[in-house]
Design goal:
The protein is α+β, with helices and mostly antiparallel strands. It has helices at 3-9, 135-146, 153-173, 192-195, 198-206, 269-278, 317-324, 358-366, 371-378; strands at 11-13, 16-18, 35-44, 46-52, 55-59, 65-69, 72-80, 83-86, 89-91, 95-100, 105-108, 111-113, 116-121, 127-134, 181-182, 210-214, 217-218, 223-224, 262-268, 287-295, 301-308, 311-316, 334-339, 342-348, 356-357, 383-386. The model is unreliable at 8-32 and 397-401 (pLDDT under 50).
Length: 401
């Protein structure tokens, strides 16, 4: 099995590389925490890649080295029925691995990535591009995208520990998947080497090997931009996350300097009807109203009804955000006000509201709180632990706390 893939699928332990067995508690070396697999592009019929520096190209299934090159100018990779077309050359394989030698980097859409990159042909003849990179290097590309580098160092350290915890939970939970995380807001924002900044990289380095645990286990340390006044219970992400560190209900006015603490969005009824049509949902023309019908413990919208065209269509708050765009509808803490043919949405915060509030973290750090104190505030009952002391069985709850 390919060296990069072995490290990505397994855990680097003191005695070498091993694959975790079901229910087995494994320890990970703090100075070599292994690789992350990040989907940096998917669903694309073709992509253009460039390699700066020496690399080798291998068939990921057989480890056969197909070629060595001192560099690779921009080449288009296409998914075809027979395999992967690399420029004009057909590679009759399902997955190509571009493995860097020394400091080579792969460029995709203007962004440079450390580590290896695999090009995977999907059954629907699209491409999945996965970056295989050391966990700490991954975090360097995450933290600089998730937080301004001018924020206080203790805030950046707190976010680095939370991000490392979240990433490891995802990796340990997805051994059978093609990747651990995506590079967008559905996981953590990730910009590769191009995104790295000195102060955020220092925060990653200063917290190396530190994670959050609950009852000795890794848990998904969710975080978000702006809670808007109170954090949300983890159960909104699924019953498995109904645990004490994600219990929510943490009163937080510390994110009031965020531009997203309070916001407003004005939509026409036509905007909503058109969005419903685009998603092939039932017609609600002419639209009558949008109203919240069920709320989460913090007061966010759990379910709502879109009423019109003689019917009532039920959506979750998440589905409503997805319907109109996560950048347009920034959270599910919403109120709907009808003004003629417009629906005015009064919103609070940005993100799901679970776990650490990033803008709140920045203010708490400016007020003198340490990274550990901030993490204790947002993740009650969680402990900061060194990787070498952690049993690597992801925490799963059946609900309740």
């Amino acid at each position: 099995m390919n060296t990069w893939r072995r490290a990505a699928l397994g855990l680097l332990v003191a005695g070498g590389i091993g694959a975790p067995s079901a229910g087995a508690a494994m320890q990970i070396a703090a100075d070599s925490p292994g690789l992350m697999r990040i989907a940096i592009a998917q669903g694309e019929p073709q992509v253009e890649l460039t390699v700066t520096g020496q690399f080798r190209l291998t068939d990921a299934a057989t480890d056969e080295v197909l070629r060595y090159r001192p560099r690779m100018p921009q080449i288009t990779f296409r998914a075809v029925p027979e395999g992967i077309l690399m420029g004009t050359q057909l590679m009759p394989v399902l997955e190509l691995m571009i493995e860097p030698i020394e400091d080579a980097t792969v460029r995709l859409r203007g962004q440079r990535f450390r580590g290896a990159v695999s090009v995977v042909r999907q059954p629907n003849q699209t491409l999945l591009i996965v970056n295989h990179v050391d966990l700490e290097d991954y975090l360097r590309g995450v933290l600089a995208k998730e937080a301004p580098d001018y924020w206080p160092s203790e805030a950046l350290k707190a976010m680095a520990i939370a991000s490392r915890t979240y990433a490891l939970f995802q990796r340990l939970s997805k051994n059978d998947a093609a990747y651990d995380v995506t590079a967008d807001v559905m996981s953590q924002l990730y910009g590769g080497k191009s995104a790295e900044r000195w102060r955020t990289s220092r925060a990653v380095r200063d917290t190396r090997g530190l994670v959050l645990t609950y009852h000795g286990a890794i848990f998904p340390a969710f975080f978000h931009s702006t809670c808007g006044g109170m954090t949300e219970r983890g159960s909104v992400m699924g019953n498995a996350y109904d645990i004490e560190p994600l219990r929510g209900g943490v009163a937080c006015s510390f994110c009031d300097e965020s531009p997203f603490y309070r916001w407003q969005r004005r939509l026409t009824k036509g905007d909503i009807v058109w969005a419903m049509k685009q998603q092939q949902r039932p017609s609600v023309w002419p639209l009558d109203r949008v109203e919240a019908t069920k709320f989460t413990p913090s007061g966010r919208v759990a379910e709502l009804a879109i009423v019109g065209g003689g019917q009532q269509v039920a959506l979750t708050g998440y589905d409503f955000r997805a319907l109109l765009g996560f950048d347009r509808i920034r959270s599910t803490w919403l109120q709907f006000v009808q003004e003629g043919d417009d629906i005015v949405i009064e919103g609070r915060g940005w993100g799901h509201g679970v776990g650490l509030c990033q803008w709140g973290t920045a203010k708490l750090a400016r007020r003198g709180m340490s990274a550990r104190e901030i993490l204790s505030f947002y993740y009650p009952a969680a402990e900061v632990a060194a990787l070498k002391d952690v049993n690597f069985t992801p925490l799963v709850s059946s609900g309740g706390s």
